[in-house]
UniProtKB/TrEMBL annotation:
Protein name per the record: Na+ efflux pump ABC transporter permease
Residue ranges of the TM segments: 20-42, 187-208, 238-264, 284-309, 318-336, 367-391
Keyword Membrane part of the UniProt annotation: yes
Pfam families (alphabetical): ABC2_membrane_2
Keyword terms of this UniProt record: Membrane, Transmembrane, Transmembrane helix
Length: 400
């Protein structure tokens, strides 16, 4: 009977246009289009800010000051041609200039006395994307390097010894982490962070539709009078939600790989081949296997909530906090210094994200991984048992 109920529920879901939107259209087309457009827009905005011409004013600098020549040599800098007002900061607020560099009037005397000269850079970074500071700092850094070399040469230090005087010790970093460890640590947290919310999104609408939705439509009673047991009904509906959840998640993965191939072509294939080659097919499959009981738990949980809800709207309201409850443990698992141990092994959701990270790094403790997998499976079974219990109670099924 479970297979009959499962087929019936899946057919009804497939015929529903809303379900197709949530299960296939959103992850396959809409999400990639939104994220792709956002990435293109962000990249374009950053590039535009980094390359736009900056209008500036320099005060306090005489003709001997090197900053005037340095700024004049830059093709993406333009000196303000108008008359200087008393309130130069007002020009920055009015966006007539991008920055004002106020040079110390005692610059030459300070240089002659080997003193540090302090200059003031005025700019408006209210938008948080002003590139003036970084671009001016780059120019000042070049001037500092030239002046330092000149001063050292004047003191009798030859050009070959300048770097040894300025930086007596140079630290060369040697990371002994294997490529698998490094890539697995970075990718491990993201796998659960991306897949689980997608599974939740794919599970919510089908769960609401086949439980609370049937209450609202008045079709639940016809199911209850069939020869099937309440356990058969719950399992059939659970498998439907579980299937919809996985279809949604893997539609998103397929879509990401497909559009990456379309836009990046050979480069995308090279990256995918490198990731698979470094991590290994077995570990990737093991990571997905680790997620199975967690997705089962999520599917059972949304089904429990939907069974309890009186109607479609109430079920949607109950589902709203779920995203928050799932994202917080996922974010905790991605924090630096958090590793899988016996304490974290029993923290729901976080334990799976940490376990996936350990699997992809190739350092997983088999006992810890088995504990994580078993605990999630027990949670899924408990939630299914609870859903079955609620399905047997008429006070829950026919709440008013």
């Amino acid at each position: 009977m479970i297979s009959v109920i499962y087929k019936k529920e899946m057919l009804e879901l497939i015929r529903d246009k809303k379900t197709l939107v949530f299960m296939i259209l959103l992850p396959l087309l809409i999400f990639p289009a939104l994220f792709g457009a956002l990435a293109v827009f962000a990249s374009h905005s950053i590039q535009k800010e980094q390359t736009r011409t900056l209008t500036y004013i320099v005060t306090g600098a005489n003709a001997l000051n090197p900053v005037l020549n340095k700024l004049a040599e830059q093709t993406d800098f333009k000196r303000y041609q108008g008359s200087l007002p008393q309130d130069i900061q007002g020009l920055i607020r009015q966006q007539k200039i991008d920055f004002w560099l106020d040079v110390s009037p005692q610059y030459l005397q300070e240089m002659a006395g080997n003193q540090q000269s302090q200059w003031k850079l005025y700019f408006n970074n209210a938008s948080g994307v002003n590139s003036a500071v970084h671009r001016v700092e780059r120019i000042i850094r070049d001037i500092n390097t030239e002046l330092t070399e000149e001063k050292l040469l004047a003191l009798g230090i030859d050009a070959d010894s300048v770097s040894g005087v300025l930086t007596p010790i140079k630290l060369v970093n040697k990371d002994i982490a294997k490529a698998k460890e490094s890539l697995g640590s970075k990718l491990g947290g993201l796998v659960a962070y991306i897949l689980l919310p997608l599974c939740l999104l794919g599970a919510i609408y089908p769960a609401v539709d086949i439980a609370a939705g049937e209450k609202e439509r008045g079709t639940l009673e016809s199911l209850l009078i069939t020869p099937s047991t309440r356990l058969d009904l719950v399992m059939g509906k659970f498998l439907t939600v579980f299937s919809a959840s996985f279809i949604s998640a893997f539609s998103a993965i397929f879509s990401l790989a497909f559009w990456s191939f379309i836009f990046a072509q050979g480069f995308a294939i090279e990256i995918i081949a490198k990731v698979v080659g470094t991590l290994g097919i077995f570990d990737l499959l093991l990571a997905l296997l680790m997620m199975l009981p967690l997705v089962m738990s999520v599917s059972a949980l949304v089904l429990c909530i939907s069974i309890y809800a009186k109607n479609f709207k109430e079920a949607q309201n109950f589902m709203a906090p779920l995203s928050f409850l799932i994202f917080v443990p996922l974010i905790a698992a991605m924090m630096p210094g958090i590793e899988l141990n016996w304490q974290w092994a029993f923290v729901p959701i976080s334990n799976v994200a940490l376990a996936i990270k350990e699997i992809l790094k190739g350092q997983g403790d088999s006992m810890l991984l088995l504990t994580v997998w078993s605990s999630q499976l027990i949670a899924a079974i408990a939630l299914l048992a609870f859903a079955t219990y609620w399905f047997k109670r008429e006070a829950v099924l026919f709440r008013t």
